[in-house]
Amino acid sequence: MKKTCAILAATTMTVAPAWAENLSVVGSWSSLPLHQQYEAPFWSETLPVASDGKLTVELTTHNQMSLGLGDIYPLLGQGVYDVAMTVADYAVADAPELEGLDVPLLALTADEARAMVDAARPMISDIYRDRFNSHVLAIAPYPPQVVFCNHAVSNLDDLKGLKIRASGRMTAKLLEALGAEGVNVSFSEVPGALQNGVVDCAVTGAGSGYSAGWWEVSTHLLPIPLGGWDSVVTAMNMDKWNSLDSATQSLISTQIKAEFEDAAWADAQGALVSDIACLTGNGDCAGETRSMTLVEVSDADFKTARDILTSEVLPDWAERAGGDWARRWNDSVGKVVGVTIN
Predict the structure, then answer these.
(1) Radius of gyration of the chain (CA)
(2) pLDDT of 176-220, one tens digit each?
(3) Nearest to 145 by CA among 169, 122, 181
(4) 323 phi and psi, to 5 degrees?
(5) Domains of the chain by start residue, with CATH
(6) CB neighbours (10 Å) of residue 20?
(7) DSSP-derived 3-state class of residue 101
(8) What pLDDT band is residue 63 in, cutting at 50, 70 and 90?
């Protein structure tokens, strides 16, 4: 704990004047576009300026602090820092009901994914309050979680028998039902795992894989969202939130929705198209193109995966989550996507 606090203090970007409210903020992966294009500018520039200097920010990221991914929200709840953001799936060991936020294959576009997130938000707010003593400020997307393979594949059936790094628990269950072997490998270790044959394929966002150089150790790309959209939840320690006056709470809520959350969602669909183009050379790419083989997923493949999701994966989650979470999901997200967990 002392080491964590010391590292955070060492990353201080500004010294808060006595009259200012200073926020210690831990962002998501520093190398990925969500942090570079949206998180860092919002916390470092947009919010302090909008508050006329009354809010100052000490910003670092969880990978810069070498935090365990499962520790990020529990430490937030303990007040080690004021604000944290990372992939919700990293917290499902402590909150299995949280898996209902980001279900694979139900959203094929950014608009559909945003509708799912908006429907789930009341549930997510309750989960973070009760499990992590935190107030949800925003939910933003990584790109859809697609499949990178260092192995020749032409359809979903070719995944049978392969070792695949999943991006979340539901994705791992789905892959296993498809006949693959789910392997637990952290994001930063995936390139080495692909190169050395520890895994044959790995699931992550197209843009994340592009930024992290997965194209150097992968040959085939399956652009089917087997890992959902990897929603990133930004939350503030509840005690800190309650200590702020209503005007400051309103300012933070308004600014983070307009300048961070809405902006990230608005860019999500275009980013997906560009990222796939950059990885495969098929289409217009804003950067350097690579030469992965683009595998077109057939309607039959999609139907097979969707049937497994609804018949096996979602019922399994409902049992593990327990309580009335399946009913709450059916009444919110389920109505938006036209799926009911029986």
Answers:
(1) 20
(2) 999 999 898 988 899 999 999 999 999 998 888 998 999 999 999
(3) 169
(4) 55, -145
(5) 2-141+229-271 (3.40.190.170), 145-228+273-334 (3.40.190.170)
(6) 16
(7) helix
(8) very high
